[in-house]
UniProtKB/TrEMBL annotation:
Cleaved signal peptide residues: none
GO molecular-function terms, A-Z: arginine-tRNA ligase activity; ATP binding; glycine-tRNA ligase activity
PANTHER family, per the entry: GLYCINE--TRNA LIGASE, CHLOROPLASTIC_MITOCHONDRIAL 2 (PTHR30075:SF2), GLYCYL-TRNA SYNTHETASE (PTHR30075)
Subcellular location: Cytoplasm
Alphabetized SUPFAM superfamilies for the sequence: HD-domain/PDEase-like (SSF109604)
Lineage, opening ranks: Eukaryota, Viridiplantae, Streptophyta, Embryophyta, Tracheophyta
Family the entry assigns: Belongs to the class-II aminoacyl-tRNA synthetase family.
InterPro entries: DALR_anticod-bd, Gly-tRNA-synth_bsu, Gly-tRNA-synth_heterodimer
Protein name: glycine--tRNA ligase
Keyword Membrane applies: yes
Length: 645
């Protein structure tokens, strides 16, 4: 069974970037060997498409040449005697080479190349960890992580510093090395004049180094790299310092280039970045953002005294995309906008909003906290998407001679998750809807991020209204009603541990108000564990089932003079007393508590009153009353999907 299943399991392992062999087999890196043991027995399996150790590599190098010679050069023995004996030998040779091109499982593994025990024989699966440990290989990921942290902290203490731990970088480094050896390095203090975030990003992203700070959080001119196995520490340190110095010289050049101009001057450079062929440039997009940001702010409850800050921030939003630093280091979008704005004397509120417009940038990232940052982030998402969704926009420069944009080679920039409203509406209108197989513009993640910002920041925006505002300023015709955030909100709430039935119940009625819907779902989930909600659900189910499928005019008035029983009058009077208390904005727990007053009147009514009498007037009157009662949960929750209905 293992022999049959393991090759398929290996093939199913997916990576962000993979290499391909024989046009079929894909893996992240060349597979040199497979160790497959069950106890002391080798599990026989084949994984095709990669070379087998050194011999296979040599064979593969000569394989194309052999094949060409075999096909083009006449066989001498066949010319002399008419036989083809040597060709049969050659066929056997080619078959052998093909055999060598397939990798087979065995009981051998390999240590680091610069160690004496480069080839290791594993006698049994149980001895695997010990054999690798004696060869200097740390198999346990947590142990490697512990080694890196402990040794790095010790090195940092030696220069009165502490390492800056970024969990993603730590996880990456842990999986890049098998025998981690932290090395302390240093760079020139003159580079500390550059922004701290820029220096750290260059270290982390490009070199996989850990930065170091003092007790006050100030960056120190030291770093820690992690080597693999036995090394000449002095040589490694010198090489790492030289590489980082070159990186910092580049960063210094780009920063000086940017600071030679005012930050506001970069806004015009957005004309050279194409957002979408149907939606214009990034400058066009930012102009749209300016046009809706005030209305979105008011809809989110922002005071009129803060609207000017909103407008000022919107006028500078994403201008850093045109800077040299962000063009080279795209993950600094928003961070450099805040830095350049503060440097040019803009207020803390405006500068922070220029950073928060990019939030969240990834799963688990911080969310915008200021009013201006929250509004800009939401408005942009409802109107595109920046770094959170990780889709890329080519940097294009306008050529007036050709009257068209042309691509700047190898330069791409990530559009941040800021203008969500504009992005959702515009890209949907441009026909960029995600399919079941792909989502190249990250629209699903934009929707999820939009929901997350609204819910976590307790902003009760009517998303459909916001999309209508964004649709009105698009350069193409957009029907905002076609955009559906319901499924993303549903996923968000289910991820929080709320039962799917409760989530569907709330979203059927309150999907356009993500914060209210989330709050209602939490409360309804808690109520579902009590005794009152099931009784209320059952009570509403009786009138709903009776009127379901019947043609009853919603506007028909109930005639009190047509009542024949005291139970009818009691139920109607109870309904009248509740009608003004139950409305679309009521809290779910208040709705359930208020609806409990209907329990006894409904019980008495159905115990003593027959609805479907022959008299049409009385029958219609009773159905009309029950229809109005069954409609009370509208705009609050669809009780029909809950258990017990």
């Amino acid at each position: 069974v293992l022999s049959e299943d393991l090759p398929g399991s290996i093939a199913k392992i997916s990576f962000q970037k993979s290499m391909r062999w024989n046009s079929e087999v894909m893996f992240s890196r060349p597979v040199r060997w497979i160790l497959a043991l069950h106890g002391d027995l080798v599990v026989p399996l084949i994984f095709a498409g990669v070379l087998r150790q050194v011999l296979g590599s040599v064979a593969f190098s000569f394989f194309p040449l052999c094949l060409i010679c075999y096909r083009l050069v006449p066989c001498p023995c066949q010319q002399a005697s008419g036989s083809s004996f040597c060709c049969l030998i050659f066929d056997a040779l080619l078959l052998s080479l093909t055999f060598l091109m397939t990798i087979y499982s065995g009981n051998t593994s390999h240590g680091l190349r610069n160690t004496p025990s480069a080839t290791l024989r594993i006698e049994s699966a149980e001895s695997y960890v010990d054999v690798m440990r004696h060869a200097g290989i740390s198999i346990d990921i947590e142990q490697r992580k512990k080694t890196i942290l402990e040794r790095s902290s010790s090195l940092a203490e030696g220069v009165d510093g502490s390492i800056v731990i970024q969990s993603g970088l730590l996880d990456e480094v842990v999986n890049l090395v098998e025998a981690p050896v932290p090395v302390l390095g240093k760079f020139e203090e003159s580079f500390l004049m550059l922004p701290k975030d820029l220096l750290i990003m260059v270290m982390q992203k490009h070199q996989k180094y850990f930065a170091m700070t003092d007790r006050n959080g100030q960056l120190l001119p030291y770093f820690i790299s992690v080597a693999n196995g036995t090394i000449n520490e002095a040589v490694v340190k010198k090489g790492n310092e030289a590489v980082l110095r070159a990186r910092y010289e580049d960063a210094k050049f780009f920063y000086k280039l940017d600071t030679s101009k005012k930050f506001s001057e970069f806004r015009n450079g957005l004309k050279g970045i194409l957002f979408h062929e149907k939606l214009g440039t990034m400058l066009d997009k930012m102009i749209r953002l300016e046009n809706i940001v005030a209305e979105i702010g008011l809809a989110l409850g922002v005071g009129e005294d803060k609207l000017q800050t909103l407008r000022d921030a919107a006028s500078l939003a994403m201008s850093d995309l045109a800077t040299a630093v962000v063009t080279e280091f795209t993950s600094l979008s928003g961070i450099m906008a805040r830095h350049y704005a503060l440097r040019d004397g803009y207020s803390e509120q405006i500068s922070e909003a220029l950073f928060e417009i990019t939030l969240p940038r990834f799963s688990g990232d911080v969310l915008p906290k200021t009013d201006a940052g929250t509004v800009l982030s939401i408005a942009d998402r409802l109107s595109t998407n920046k770094s959170m969704c990780s889709w890329e926009v080519l940097l294009l420069k306008f050529d007036p001679d050709r009257n068209s944009f042309w691509r700047i080679p190898d330069k791409r920039t990530k559009i941040s998750s800021s203008s969500w409203l504009d992005s959702l509406v515009g890209l949907f209108g441009a026909g960029c809807q995600p399919s079941s197989f792909s989502d190249p513009f990250g629209l699903r993640r934009i929707s999820y991020g939009l929901v997350q910002v609204l819910v976590d920041n307790k902003r009760n925006l009517d998303v459909r209204h916001g999309m209508g505002l964004a649709a009105a300023v698009q350069p193409i015709k957009v029907d905002a009603r076609t955009i559906d955030n319901v499924r993303k909100l549903e996923q968000f709430l289910v991820d929080k541990g709320i039962s799917p039935e409760v989530v569907r119940s709330i979203l059927t009625e309150r999907a356009n108000l993500p914060y209210l819907a989330a709050k209602s779902a939490y409360k309804l989930e808690a109520l579902s564990k009590g005794e009152l909600l099931p009784k209320v659900v059952e009570a509403y189910s009786r009138p709903t089932r009776i009127v379901r499928g019947k043609d009853i005019n919603d506007n028909i008035e109930v005639d009190e003079t047509a009542f024949e029983t005291k139970e009818e009058r009691a139920l109607w009077n109870t309904f009248l007393s509740l009608r003004s208390k139950i409305h679309t904005g009521i809290e779910v727990d208040d709705f359930v508590e208020t609806s409990s007053q209907l329990l006894q009147p409904l019980e008495d009514f159905f115990n003593h009153v027959f609805v479907m009498v022959e008299d049409e007037k009385i029958r219609s009157n009773r159905l009309a009353m029950l229809k109005k009662i069954s409609d009370l949960p509208r705009g609050i929750a669809d009780l029909s999907v809950l258990p017990g209905f």
